[in-house]
Amino acid sequence: MDIFVCIKQVPSTNKVQVDEKTGVLIRDGVASKMNPYDLFALETALRLREEHGGRVVVGTMGPPQAQAVVREAYWMGADEGYVFSDRRLGGADVLATSYTLSQAIRSVGDFDLILCGKQTTDGDTAQVGPAIAEHMGIPHAAWASKVSVDGAGVRVEQQLQDVVETAWLPFPCLVTVEQDIYTPRLPSLLKRRAVKDKPVDMRGLDAFLDTDPSHYGLTGSPTQVERIFPPQSDVEHETWEGDGSAGRLHELLKKWKFV
């Protein structure tokens, strides 16, 4: 069973600057980590491999430093890893991102199952996974809290708003998973030492079947950001010292009608 897991490197802080001209996050110099939701997808893939054999391949679209999250996936047990990095891919919206990833996955090979986290912490659209499946013309299910192999496909339980729905999808298919599906394993120190020299395959637009740059990045994005800016903070604070702090706090709470 061959499984591809989409992962992403995201900022590890919410204090990220924005390019006012392009509306794109400025990631240079910002501490990053693997998107937390992708850890659940990776854990799901590793457990399915343990039960049914096969391989787990991870891939991410991003700058060269995104190799760090691929290596983290190696430490957890992934077999192969790819970074799809090309300046012509930058600034993509949901449509262009999902199309890029569909082309990227096809450039690697054929997979029975594609797994994604339900969303990313820097975008929060929860649309890229299903959109990849639409571009690839394969069935998909979102918000899965359980995934199990059933014959020539997978059976999933989907957490909808008021009900849990069960669906069966034939291979190949794509599933996005919820964060309560499994507890992600910790990276293994022994595995980390064993894979320290394991290569990460870097690929650009020229490796795709469709190499038309107008289909990718900003030029391939029908969504145009008119204006984006960091939220304004109007929090005020005071520092009190001395023995009268409790009394001052009480008077302040009375003024605000909290007491």
UniProtKB/TrEMBL annotation:
Domain named Electron transfer flavoprotein alpha/beta-subunit N-terminal: residues: 22-212
MF annotations from Gene Ontology: electron transfer activity
Family matches, as InterPro entries: ETF_a/b_N, ETF_b, ETF_beta_N, Rossmann-like_a/b/a_fold
Superkingdom of the source species: Bacteria
PANTHER family according to UniProt: ELECTRON TRANSFER FLAVOPROTEIN BETA-SUBUNIT, PROTEIN FIXA
Record's protein name: Electron transfer flavoprotein small subunit
Organism in which the protein naturally occurs: Candidatus Avichristensenella intestinipullorum
Lineage: Bacteria, Bacillati, Bacillota, Clostridia, Candidatus Avichristensenella
